[in-house]
Amino acid sequence: MAALPTSLVAFAMALLPYAQLVLSAPALLFERQSAAVPEFVTKYAPVIWLDSKDAYFPSDIGAQLANTKPQINFVDVAVPNTLTLDNLDQLNANDGANVYLTSVADVTTDPAWLEGVKPNADGKTEGAVSCAVIVNDHGAGNVDAFYMHFYANNWGGRILGQNVGRHVGDWEHIMVRFKDGNPTALWYSQHAFGQAFTYDAVEKQGVRPVGYSSNGSHAIWSNTGTHDHTIPGLDLPQGPLEDTTDQGTLWDPLLSAYFYSYNADTKAFAAYDDSYPLAWLNYIGRWGDEEYPDSDPRQNKIFGIDASAEFVGGPTGPIDKQLNRSNVCPTRDGSICVVRPVLPP
User: Fold this and answer.
1) R_g (Cα) of the chain, nearest Å
2) Among 61, 83, 116, 207, which residue has the fewest nearby CB atoms (within 10 Å)?
3) How far is CA 156 from the centre of its chain?
4) What is residue 198's DSSP assignment?
5) pLDDT, tens digit, for every residue of 198-245?
6) Do 260 and 34 contact (CB within 8 A), yes or no?
7) For residues 161 and 236, which has the higher predicted lDDT (pLDDT)?
8) 246: left (phi > 0), else alpha (psi -120 to 50), else beta?
């Protein structure tokens, strides 16, 4: 997901007295996997509770291409072929880091494709591949598995009655670290940072860790309730920048997923099954619209403050999620990696 601008934290603190941001099992089945996928990667794969109030569900990764067009500075980028997950990386040659997959329809009309696919009774997003599992084997029994979750839309949150931080396209993830096939720690992505826990600390269904996707923003938390993220990496019970989570709909991302390995030495991805598209993982651009300028009537800002923009730019994809980490936490300036042995109250 695209993180809220750091200046928004100061803005929210100033409004603390009167502002509130409202971001706001069934049997778990696994129908298909390649024998090459490490067994422990599927055995200990996380399951996700979607918030009962969230109107935007996990989405088909490829469908994002069918409903968007590549642009740089709101000008169409010419491509020789229709974009698919098998050739999306061709955009890298066109100043790829500045390419935005821009919605063809006006997102303020809430086109149906932004809603995603609600998981069925088995927890599957029927007809929508909404997860990519990426395995990085560091050697000597050390393996990191990234469970990447995709949503077509991030609703952001509300402050003083206005949406803040909304963007098209949303990538979230849980990373599970393994030693000799046993899970030892997890990383939950949240806005500008996230949280790490020991495997023993987290809630589970059987042996599978549980995550909670917050209403609107889809940040992944370790339990239900209200989560203030004014200070990245902290989970406080209340504050100016709040997410909410509950046990709404249970989603099992494995039931509609692609599986890949990642070689950190060559920075190359490989598909565990030849039927899985591969080129899209190398795409370095953004998965949604560029932040709308002030001249765009869809853009709104509280008191004209840039940090309170209703619409912000879409996120980068899995390639930009630090797939080769030393610590469980990604590297971030000024931060330390704390692996918590207990969940927050």
Assistant:
1) 19
2) 207
3) 13
4) E
5) 999 999 999 999 999 999 899 999 999 987 766 666 776 777 678 899
6) no
7) 161
8) beta
The helix/strand/coil state of 191 is: coil
pLDDT tens digits, 119-133: 999 999 999 999 999
* Structure tokens given for 52: 């009962």
Q: Is the pTM of this model over 0.85?
A: yes
Q: Give the C-alpha separation, 7 to 5, whole Å.
A: 5
Q: Which amino acid is at 50?
A: L
CA angle 28, 32, 35 (to 5 degrees): 115
CB 332 within 8 A of CB 326: no
Alpha-carbon distance of 289 to 226, in angstroms, equals 29
CA 168 to chain centre: 12
Whole-angstrom distance, CA of residue 289 vs CA of residue 169? 8
- Structure token pair of residue 185: 């720690």
**Under DSSP, is residue 271 helix (H, G, I), strand (E, B) or coil?**
strand
SS3 content of the chain, % helix, strand, coil (to 5): 15, 35, 50
Q: Which of 233, 253, 229, 256 has its CA nearest to residue 243?
A: 229
